[in-house]
Amino acid sequence: MIKRISLAIAALALAACSPPAQEAPAEDTAANAPIAPAGCVAEASRDWSAVGSQYYVIEAEAAGATCRDAVATIRLTTSEGAVLYERAHPTSQVSLAFAPNSDQARLREELDAWTQNTADPQTADSLPAWPSGAARPPTFQPADGVTRAVYENARGNQSALFCYPDGGESNACVALAGTTATLLGSFTPERP
User: Fold this and answer.
1) What does the mean pLDDT of the chain come to?
2) Which among 29, 48, 128, 141 is least buried, having the fewest CB atoms inside 10 angstroms?
3) What does pTM read for this prediction?
């Protein structure tokens, strides 16, 4: 009997020294669920065949805490993916392209429309001439650093021209030649 009591005491001592058995963690379904992006996110892209057998990809994306607060980025790349031009615009400042009360589905449609070229024809010689001695061409606001020589060179070379809404009434115009892109400035069409 002493032997049995000794064995019982030894078993109790051994159990007291062993760590408690751990319970299997409950499966956290929230942690295993896919994470949805917060806020408003949309994107669009299209191929663009410019003059002279030049091919580019026009990409646009927008993200923000809400669609009203989204910032949209437009990007022109070569067909191989090299970025030639990229510019971000708060959608609230580009009322020509983005409605202030868009939801995510509507923002996607607006981005798709934003990637369409507004230049017609799609060559820089369609822009108004910059008269000698004038501060700028009529109905056109040159970008910082764009001189009359740069502007007129793009027009004279009949560079491919991609224009897109960049404000309430204006369109930013980018001249492209091979793997070179130059933001010429913003064009505001004359009203009839």
Assistant:
1) 83
2) 29
3) 0.77
